[in-house]
Amino acid sequence: MAQRDGVDIRYLLDHYEVSDDVEKLVRGKVAPKAREKFLGYAEVRQVFNITKTGKVAGCMITEGLVKRVRRRRVLRENVVIHSGEFRS
User: Fold this and answer.
1) Backbone φ, ψ for residue 26 (5° rounding)
2) Which of 29, 51, 66, 85 has the fewest CB atoms in 10 Å of its CB?
């Protein structure tokens, strides 16, 4: 669950190590590590305008899999035009 949710878990031996680690985090000496895992590609085939909802993209998965609850990036000609979550 921690890996899925991106939670950083550290195994420390004593309370001195904990206090040193927390101090380093607070001072910015230990930068958070951004991890990204590839799940799949989807190709937008058509964009629909729905009156009360907004724009809806009709997609076809071309490689791997796409999960609804994951963060995504939308690229156009290898340039990120959206990064974040979708409603559905």
Assistant:
1) -65, -40
2) 51
pLDDT tens digits for 52-68?
888 888 888 899 887 77
Q: Which two tokens stand for residue 54?
A: 């907004």
pLDDT surpassing 70 at residue 69: no
**DSSP-assigned states of every residue in 14-74:** SHHHHHHHHHHHHHTSSPPPP-----EEEEEEEEEEETTTEEEEEEEEEEE---TTS-EEE
Residue spans of the domains in the chain: they are 40-84
pTM recorded for the entire structure: 0.48
